[in-house]
């Protein structure tokens, strides 16, 4: 029977003086965790829409978290194989602009 696993990402967002910070922390079932931070800053000429700052800061935190997880995976593969592994680049269908 297949096992279902659950990993949790907790995101905390705070704002101060036109700057938004999001901290994303991944928690795995075995107790491992990765933590990343994303920031967004309000352009003084733009209208203040807090949701946009939240979205941008969270997107940046999750992007960094994704890269950290890929690096950890490459290190794990290298440890098993006894050499440094290169993480494959995403295919064009996996990238967004």
Characterization of this structure:
The chain is elongated. It is of the alpha+beta class and 97 residues long. The protein contains 1 helix and 3 strands; from the N terminus they run E-E-E-H. The chain is 33% helix and 28% strand. The chain has a 3-stranded antiparallel sheet with strand order 1-2-3. A hairpin with a 5-residue loop joins strand 2 and strand 3.
Task: Give a concise summary.
This protein is of the alpha+beta class. Helix content is 33%, strand content 28%. It has one helix at residues 50-81, and strands at residues 8-16, 19-27, 33-41.
Biggest pleated-sheet summary? 3 strands, antiparallel
Task: Report how far the terminal alpha carbons are from each other.
Answer: 39 Å
Strand content: 25-35%
Mean pLDDT: 86
Low-pLDDT segments: 92-97
Proportion of residues in helical segments:
25-40%
Number of helices: 1
Q: What order do the strands of the largest sheet run in, or round the barrel if closed?
A: 1-2-3
Q: How does the overall form come out from the CA principal axes?
A: elongated
Order of SSEs? EEEH
Structural class by secondary-structure content: alpha+beta
Alpha-carbon Rg, integer? 17 Å
Key features of this structure:
97 residues; alpha+beta; three-stranded antiparallel β-sheet; 3 strands; 28% strand; elongated; disordered C terminus
Topology:
Layout: E1 8-16, E2 19-27, E3 33-41, H1 50-81
Antiparallel strand pairs: 1-2, 2-3
């Amino acid at each position: 029977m297949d096992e279902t696993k659950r990993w949790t990402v907790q995101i905390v967002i705070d704002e101060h003086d036109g700057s938004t910070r999001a901290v994303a922390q991944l928690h795995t079932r075995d107790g491992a965790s990765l933590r990343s931070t994303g920031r967004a800053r309000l352009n003084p000429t733009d209208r203040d829409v807090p949701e946009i700052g939240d979205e941008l800061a969270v997107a940046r935190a999750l992007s960094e978290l994704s890269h950290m997880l890929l690096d950890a995976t490459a290190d794990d593969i290298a440890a098993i194989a006894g050499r440094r592994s290169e993480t494959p680049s995403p295919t064009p269908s996996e990238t967004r602009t």
